[in-house]
Design brief:
The chain has helices at 27-38, 62-77, and strands at residues 10-20, 51-59, 83-91, 94-100. With 101 residues, it is an alpha+beta fold. It has a domain at 10-24 and 50-100: 2-Layer Sandwich (Mth169, Chain: A). The protein starts with 9 loop residues before the first strand and ends with a strand.
């Protein structure tokens, strides 16, 4: 898919976080919060359970990778009716904030 004059794709590491929207009841998060309380961690509040995806994506640059990862979230990784997501590109120990929805 590369054309003349375009940069060859780079493999970029990315992390996608998917969580229930704030206004959506999170029974799994509530169950975890209750269990933590029973274990003596009563200072924990408002636990939200979600999913994290780590992956590598081939793209010309970080912007293209973020756009592609956003498409993946919209199409499969997140149920955008009930979940929000955030995407970050990882580079060594630093991370670059990316798309959030």
């Amino acid at each position: 898919m590369s054309s003349e004059g375009s940069s060859p794709p780079h493999r970029l590491k990315a992390r996608v976080h998917v969580f229930p929207r704030a206004e959506i009841l999170d029974p799994q998060g509530k169950a975890i919060q209750d269990a933590l309380g029973r274990l003596g961690f009563a200072d924990v509040a408002d636990v939200r359970a979600g999913k994290v995806f780590s992956m590598e994506v081939a793209a010309a640059d970080e912007g293209a990778a973020l756009a592609r990862l956003g498409e993946m979230c919209e199409g499969l990784l997140a149920n955008t009716v009930t979940e929000d997501y955030s995407v970050e590109i990882l580079s060594g120990e630093d991370s670059t904030a990316g798309v959030t929805r």
